[in-house]
Amino acid sequence: MTKYRSTRGDVRNYSFEEAVLSGLASDRGLFVPEEDSFPSLPPNALTEWASLSYQDLAVEILSLFIDAKEIP
Question: What does the DSSP 8-state code read for residue 38?
Fold first, then answer.
């Protein structure tokens, strides 16, 4: 599962839900994926994604960053 941290470095280990509901981190930084949990693209991702609609492409990309358990 991808964890998020503040760009200012004082806030770490937030879930997607915590980051979205917080808006800005308490140190006023933006939330970005932690370096060690940044997802990698599957080998043929760009080729496979080239023919997708905007909505389907968004689902594919966001699913790399958001755990399915965090989506109601």
Answer: -
Q: Where are the beta strands (DSSP E) in the chain?
A: 4-6, 31-33
Closest by CA position to 4, among listed 56, 67, 69: 67
Q: 1-58, pLDDT tens digit by residue? A: 789 999 998 899 999 999 999 999 999 999 999 988 778 888 999 999 999 999 999 9
Catalogue all structural domains in the chain, each as residue range(s) with its CATH number.
Answer: 4-70 (3.90.1380.10)
Type of residue at 26: S
Query: What's the rounded Cα separation, in Å, for the pair 4 and 38?
Result: 9
- Rounded to a whole number, what is the largest CA-CA distance in the chain? 41
- pTM (whole model) above 0.85: no
Give how far Cα 59 sits from Cα of 8, 30, 48, 65, Å. Answer: 28, 22, 13, 10
